[in-house]
Amino acid sequence: MKLLITHTDKKPQKSFNSFPKNMICFSHLRWDFVFQRPQQLLTRLSESLKIFFIEEPVCDAAGKDHYTYLNRGENIVVMVPHIKSGLTADESRITLKGLFDKFMENRDLADHAFWYYTPMALEFSRKYNPELTVFDCMDELSAFKFAPEELKTLEKELLKKADIVFTGGYSIYEAKKNQHANIYPFPSSIEKEHFARARGLVKNTNGNIKLGFYGVIDERFDIDLIKGIADAKPEWEIILIGPVVKIDPATLPENKNIYYLGSKTYQELPEFLATWDIALIPFLLNESTRFISPTKTPEYLAAAKPVISTPIRDVVNPYGKNKLVHIGSNASDFIEAAEKELRNQNKDKWLNQVDAFLALNSWDKTSDQMLKLMKDTVKGKLYTSIAQ
Q: pLDDT digits over 261-296, tens only?
């Protein structure tokens, strides 16, 4: 601390209590697509920060390339880049860089934080050094279908540039923890009150057994598992909610007892959950699911629905390990677990365990903890700059 007292010729530009007022988020996910981790966290952070959420480009500009600005809350602005179609990869990068540079004109970088979900955004933002750079590594994006080849290289660059790194689960934290000195795991959390609404809503109305899933139906989705359950139990109804992306819809099973309801809003989900008997997490075990921490796990539990999942690492530990969900590898396992739950007449003990577990976490707590760590990181940078 002597350095702080004697080096009076180096006055800090900002106090230890200062923190950027603006946060620019670079996302591979669209704000209005599926309400998940980015929206949960940034909505809460917007209570103390102005959020600019920059999506990936839409190639539909008939004239001048431009951003459209959409308000999604008092302090949240979604920015959608509209660029011309038919551009090469290099032309696209140059265009996006031009748009972002114009947006950043006359902005004080000392009053901005950058929050990255996609390392690809470095291609047009790398020259900037804001007060704080955050990488929320929610998934291993390079393992996803159609991932750009340069994604791994850009992630390494982002890990060097970031002041602080968060991960979307414990398994991805274990894989990344030696790649950054200031990294913390924050697995999927829960807005318990929202999903607990399902407990008081009208239950199954037609008497048929209903097994349900909501989320994105993509290359992670175990199509054969769903078909196997539907074939073996034609009297059961399987409800699938969510958009179909990156796979051919024609490959999905078309059994009479499988119902594809398309996308539903976050606000509608408790109403659908209330009608289910069992909730499903039917993910394949592959590179794209190796590090995922499904947000739907605690959401299903908050709705008091028995859950059956394939052995996804971040579901097995902690949910399977604590006997809060059933783990199965195939249709027979899922059917056996479902039948066991359907025979269970006393779920009070299980539900008490669920509520005790969920009480330990919430998106409010997660965002508060992240904000504290970010503030500590800014203070650490300031202290270092003064000491030097």
A: 999 999 999 999 999 999 999 999 988 898 999 999
What's residue 13's pLDDT? 52
Asked whether the predicted pLDDT for residue 204 surpasses 70, the reply is no
247, 217 in Cβ contact below 8 A?
yes
Decide if 296 contacts 280 (C-beta within 8 A).
no
Predicted structure pTM score: 0.88
Specify the pLDDT at position 188: 85
CA dist 359 → 40, 86, 182 (Å) = 17, 50, 27
Q: How confident is the model over 140-174, as pLDDT tens digits?
A: 776 666 667 788 899 999 999 999 999 999 999 99
Q: To which residue do tokens 């069992």 refer?
A: 278
Predicted local confidence at residue 287, as pLDDT: 84
Domain 2-189+363-387 class in CATH:
alpha beta
In the CATH hierarchy, which top-level class contains the domain 192-358? alpha beta
Mean pLDDT over 85-114 rounds to: 96
**How much is the pLDDT for 4?**
37
The three state secondary structure string of the chain is CHHHHHCCCCCCCCCCCCCCCEEEEECCCCCCCCCCHHHHHHHHHCCCCEEEEECCCECCCCCCCEEEEEECCCCEEEEEEECCCCCCHHHHHHHHHHHHHHHHCCCCHHHEEEEECCHHHHHHHCCCCCCEEEEEECCCHHHCCCCCCCHHHHHHHHHHHCCEEEECCHHHHHHHHHHCCCEEECCCCCCHHHHHHHHHCCCCCCCCCEEEEECCECCCECHHHHHHHHHHCCCCEEEEECCECCCCHHHCCCCCCEEEEECCCCCCHHHHHCCCCEEEECECCCHHHCCCCCCHHHHHHHCCCCEEECCCHHHHHHHHCCCCCEECCCHHHHHHHHHHHHHCCCCHHHHHHHHHHHCCCCHHHHHHHHHHHHHHHHHHHHHHHHHC
Which residues of the chain does CATH 3.40.50.2000 include?
2-189+363-387, 192-358
**In the structure encoding, which two tokens stand for residue 309, read together?**
């999942």
